Amino acid sequence: EVQLLESGGGSVQAGGSLRLSCAASGRTYDVYSMAWFRQAPGAELEGVAGLDSDGGTSYAESVKGRFTISKDNAKNILYLQMNTLKPEDTGIYYCAADYIVHTATMVHWPEPRVNFPYWGQGTQVTVFS
């Protein structure tokens, strides 16, 4: 099975940037779908950005134009570049993956933990004003 390890979180002032990384290990050769989710305090998981096997991407409306999802296939690392951060971006950010081919838009579907069986432990992002 694939194991996922996020890094790159931290505290940043509003307007700043962070780049999250998700290193995949184990059985990675046939991971076709990956995504970033986040969970704010007291809130449900929210799909932030999805990436499909054809390079298609999908973003939550709240992050469009500010966040970019990408993957280094040689290193098996998924990235989330986050620019112009806002306090409402605060939360724990999770990387998720599946061996099944998904459309990138599946990141926005209900029941994310059913749709993406493999998850990292998360990395905290705090944006202060």
- The topology string of helices and strands comes to EEEEEEEEEHEE
Poorly predicted ranges (pLDDT <50, ≥5 residues)? none
Tertiary shape:
globular
Number of helices: 1
Annotation, overall tally of beta strands: 11
**Helical coverage, percent range:** under 10%
Strand content of the residues, in percent? over 45%
Radius of gyration: 13 Å
Mean pLDDT: 96
Q: Which structural class should the secondary elements be placed in? A: mainly beta
Largest sheet: 7 strands, mixed
Question: What gap, in angstroms, lies between the N and C termini?
Answer: 40 Å
Account of the protein in words:
It is a single chain. The strands form two sheets. Strands 2, 4, 5, 6, 9, 10 and 11 form a seven-stranded mixed sheet that branches. This protein has a four-stranded antiparallel sheet with strand order 1-3-8-7, with no helix packed on it. The mean pLDDT is 96. It has one helix at 112-115, and strands at 2-7, 10-13, 18-26, 33-39, 46-51, 57-59, 67-72, 77-82, 91-98, 118-119, 123-128. Strand 4 and strand 5 (46-51) form a beta hairpin. With 129 residues, the protein is mainly beta. It has one helix and eleven strands, in the order βββββββββαββ.
